[in-house]
Amino acid sequence: MKAMTNEKELIRQFVIEKLARAKKINRINDQDNLIENNIIDSLGIMQLVSYIEATFAVKVKDEDIIPDYFESIDAISSYIENLQQPSSE
Asked: DSSP letter string over 12-57?
């Protein structure tokens, strides 16, 4: 559980520093809808994808770049956790 907490903090820090601060947003809760609250847009999602791939050593598939996976810190963290699970292929 501690790893997930650290993961969420890394995601939150990136979103605040790189995407939200320009909009004068300095605090984001795990459940806040980042898209509906205009914290991230399509360009922000692409920046977030690049950050996730570099930071967590995972590959985000093109078909996975949908709002559902990036709408909140909780959603992003769950998505990363799923990517890190061993594949059954």
From this structure: HHHIIIIIIGGGT-----TT--TTTTTS--HHHHHHHHHHHHHHH-
